[in-house]
Specification:
Residues 61-160 form the Methyltransferase type domain. The chain has helices at 3-19, 31-35, 42-46, 48-51, 68-75, 87-100, 118-121, 143-153, 167-170, 220-229; strands at 58-62, 79-84, 109-112, 127-132, 154-165, 193-196, 212-215, 233-240, 242-243, 252-254, 260-262, 272-278. It is α/β, with parallel strands linked by helices.
Length: 282
């Protein structure tokens, strides 16, 4: 058994339950997607122009969680498969898609698997687009393994598209509100950082009960090099001064579209990035 994986899965099973709450509008406020059949998630909408036309493409959304980004990609016309290691998250994702009932979208498949096993759970070299939303890569211990999985899943000519929290942000201590404090490793480490926290990154109806997690940071250079070593060609790398949650409480200001940027230290550090890479071929 993989202790780190099992512990993180328990945490994400717990998060899925509170993130998908509908009655109060907390968590991910999923009722919005049911009430508005054209609504896109803030994460997908942020990169809409960079993502381009994905209508008709076969897409896999790795680490899809409760499916709000997955549904959004389908609403843009893609044929989407969502993959996640949490059975609770996948049950919530299926319920959201069923209840949202968006006219004209292709059926969405959901597959239970961790990322490393994705080439076994899915058909290799069968996807036009591998998509990963924000806050996903920090749960993976080896960025090289992830890049090889991506390359295996893509068709020749297919592309990877990721928006992620910047490793500079992951290096900061969010508990210090007087200034920016670099506390944690920027580069990938063999051993993870261990956390024990009953709170999530969005407001929830109750504290978490599975509170322990393990995380790994991956520097920008490590991500880029892993993709190049996997045979992909980098076609985009954009750093952003905002992130879609209040990552540093007391030091950020809200922007439209669910984004948060630094206040007194505006522009001092990148907070997120978008990266795209293509598998050579047709």
């Amino acid at each position: 058994m993989n202790h780190h994986l099992d512990t993180n899965r328990a945490n994400w099973d717990d998060r899925a339950s509170v993130h998908a709450a509908r009655e109060t509008g907390r968590g991910y406020d999923v009722q919005r997607y049911i009430d508005d059949p054209e609504l896109l998630s803030d994460v997908v909408r942020f990169d809409r122009e960079r993502l381009g036309d994905i209508s008709g493409l076969r897409v896999v959304h790795l680490q899809c969680h409760i499916g709000t980004d997955t549904l959004s990609l389908a609403r843009l016309g893609a044929r989407v498969t969502g993959l996640d290691f949490s059975p609770v998250a996948l049950a919530e994702a299926r319920a959201l898609v069923d209840d949202a009932r968006t006219p004209g979208i292709a059926p969405i498949d959901f597959v239970e698997s961790d990322v490393d096993a994705a080439p076994t759970a899915l058909e290799p070299a069968s996807f036009d687009l591998v998509y990963t939303g924000i806050g996903a890569l920090c749960w993976l211990p080896h960025i090289d393994d992830w890049a090889n999985v991506v390359a295996t899943l893509l068709k020749p000519g297919g592309r990877l598209f990721v928006r992620e929290g910047h490793p500079i942000l992951w290096s900061m201590d969010e508990t210090e509100s007087d200034d920016l404090h670099l506390r944690f490793p920027y580069f990938e480490q063999a051993e993870p950082l261990e956390w024990d926290d009953a709170n999530s990154y969005v407001e929830t109806d109750r504290p978490l009960t599975a509170t322990k997690t393990y995380e790994w940071n991956h520097g920008i250079g490590e991500v880029v090099t892993a993709l190049l070593d996997a045979g992909l060609v980098l076609t985009m790398l954009v750093e952003h001064d905002s992130v879609p949650w209040e990552a540093l409480p007391g030091q950020m200001v809200a922007r439209p579209g669910g984004e948060f940027a630094l206040d007194a230290r505006a522009g001092v550090a990148p907070l997120s990035y978008t990266i795209q890479a293509v598998k050579p071929g047709v």
